Amino acid sequence: MKTQVGIIGGGPSGLLLSQLLHLQGIETVVLEQRSRDYVLGRIRAGVLEKGFVDLMRKAGIADRLDSEGEVHNGFDIASDGDLFNVDMKGLTGGDTVVVYGQTEVTRDLYDARDKLGGIVIHEAQDVTPHDITSDSPYLTYRQGDEVTRVDCDYIIGCDGFHGVSRKSIPSDVLRVFERVYPFGWLGVLSRTTPVSEELIYARSERGFALCSLRSRVLSRYYVQVPLEDRVEDWPDERFWEELKQRLPRAVAEKLETGPSIEKSIAPLRSFVAEPMRYGNLFLAGDAAHIVPPTGAKGLNSAASDIHYLYEALLKHYTEGDDRGLEGYSDKALARVWKAQRFSWWMTNLLHKFPETGEFGQRMQQTDIDYLKSSRAAQISLAENYVGLPF
Do the beta carbons of residue 88 and residue 386 sit within 8 Å? Predict the structure, then answer.
């Protein structure tokens, strides 16, 4: 098999790049280790920056997003029982975010690839990049006993934190930066009316909580929990009671509870791998960087990678201009580190860190008080939340 761009990973990053390139007549093959049903079953966040929304429109897959996505003009921060609104739209001159589940993004991308006859190969086992520093890199994968070779010009690694792409870069070349946080997020999805039209980020002495939503009838809630906790330790009744205790009383009193549809615990980490290019292998998304979910930057940081790769590959194939490919790693990392800073700051602002004690809690409250009183601080927060320009 031969193609122009071989993509490892059939999540939203790989599918989005494949769709964008296909519309420009550039051939791609996507290799995904899991089944299509498994990929569509992943429950992930869905706060989309303006840049991500623009990319979906460019890819021709924004019809459902535009009709079903929830446009958010701001969000609330709760601390010590008080609620404070961050007016993103007013502070940024009109920019907003859209709440639209990652599962729905992936579904829209699959439908678009199907309509165009895009090649997405599922249950591709033992995917391996070869000769990535040569002018003729290729991929191999196995299905059953049959091994297939895919010759390509470039290999794009969109296969996540545990994928093979980053591991294909020699250890003496790759530099890794990482912080693992001493807690995780217990998330519950419920078929209940969201407690608020806006997201609520809550700081309390008991720990962090987040009130989010997927639609007007589907809610997503989170509470900070110790890393050693298990889902089995948190029956629905315990979860709802703990969530209420971390929210302002007026919010807790109107919280609608119900059976959980999905429940999981996600650890929090900050992670960056440099460089994001080695030879003709390019990393994108979680293969190169992970952020805590506090600032809603994970999927959006991946989208910025895809934007830079799409523009660079388009220039290469249409104009013979390789400057975008040559500068991809530096350009992508510059934005990645800004997203890391923002996610790190939001995480430190709102979570309970046992090692910081009462001093740390006072500093958090002082930071929030300053945020309330300073329009400049609010503008900085809003600009980062809606997404810095590509």
Answer: yes
| Residue at 5: amino acid letter | V
Tokens at 345, concatenated? 């700051």
Show the tokens assigned to 291: 């952020």
* Superfamily name and number for 5-71+96-178+269-346: FAD/NAD(P)-binding domain (3.50.50.60)
pTM of the shown model: 0.94
Catalytic residue among 201, 222, 308, 310: 201
The bridge status of strand 138-143 relative to strand 125-130 is antiparallel
Residues of the chain with pLDDT under 50: none
Options 50, 297, 316, 352, the catalytic residue: 297
Question: Long-range contacts for 133-138 (Cβ within 8 Å, ≥24 apart)?
Answer: 133/278, 133/279, 133/280, 134/279, 134/280, 135/280, 137/6, 137/279, 137/280, 137/281, 138/6
The span from the first CA to the last CA of the chain, in angstroms, equals: 34
DSSP labels for 299-313? HHHHHHHHHHHHHHH
pLDDT tens-digit profile of 99-110? 998 899 999 999
Strands 146-151 and 154-157: unpaired
Is 278 catalytic? The answer is no
